[in-house]
Amino acid sequence: MKYLPYEDFEIHTDLSSDEVFYRLRAAVDTEGKWWIFTNKPFWGEVYRHHFRIWRDTWWGRNFTPITFGAIQEENLGSCIRIRMRMPWHGFLFYSFIFGFLWLSFFLGYADLILQKIQTGIWQIESLGEWLLNIVLFIIFLAYIYFISVGTFKSDVCRIKDRLLRISGTAEEDIIYRDTILGITESQIIKALFIIPIVISLGWMIYKLLL
Fold first, then answer.
1. What pLDDT is recorded for position 34?
2. Is the per-residue pLDDT at 18 higher than 60?
């Protein structure tokens, strides 16, 4: 997915499932050593047919991906099914902050429109101040997005490159499955706009009927 902190894809390789297992096992520190005392790129757990790995970094694991994988034998090699997500504590923190700011933005303008309707005065007192507030809000929202999702996506690229090297494949061998519970990324993004708009309209109607 391009904009959301989730990845789901498959890597098809000519290597057997056993070869993939041994290569992956060699790249993962299962003892949980501190990052300066190991030369392996991943920490985690690797079993014959599935694994759970992550990159341990000096800034911690708040937004770095946790990678879940399954190794499946195929006729001409094997398939590595990969899912990446944020750690739950990082995802919940990001979702709460982002959701609170996003909904507050729409409800704030719903209250402003409601005030204009009730007073009948529609001119904007200070266009410059109004535009400045919008710009500052967008900058702050972008900052929250880039320190969370930006960190996630940056590590996704590193993990993906390492997995391609381990499996002896290239980017062309990846098959992406850009859905979450059958919902596409574009549908989720549309919902992020539609839901707060509906909530704001419902809030305005409720206040007008009081």
1. 61
2. yes
- Mean pLDDT is lowest, of 34-38, 84-88, 163-167, for 34-38
- Spell out the residues 6+ positions from residue 167 whose beta carbon is closer than 8 angstroms to its own: 11, 13, 15, 20, 23, 80, 173
**At residue 152, what are phi and psi to the nearest 5 degrees?**
-60, -50
Picking from 150, 207, 103, 140, the residue whose alpha carbon sits closest to that of residue 2 is 150
Query: Within 10 Å of residue 155's Cβ, how many Cβ atoms?
Result: 19
Indicate the pTM of the whole model: 0.81
**Per-residue 3-state assignment (H helix, E strand, C coil) for the chain:** CCCCCEEEEEEEECCCHHHHHHHHHHHEECCCCCHHHCCCCEEEEECCCEEEEECCCCCCCCCCCEEEEEEEEECCEEEEEEEEECCHHHHHHHHHHHHHHHHHHHHHHHHHHHHHHHHCCCCCCCHHHHHHHHHHHHHHHHHHHHHHHHHHHHHHHHHHHHHHHHHCCCHHHEEECCEECCEEHHHHHHHHHHHHHHHHHHHHHHHHHC
Question: For position 204, what pLDDT does the model report?
Answer: 86
Rounded-to-integer distance, Cα 76 and Cα 112, Å: 63
- How confident is the prediction for the chain on average, in pLDDT? 86
Do β-strands 77-85 and 174-176 pair in parallel, antiparallel, or remain unpaired? Answer: unpaired
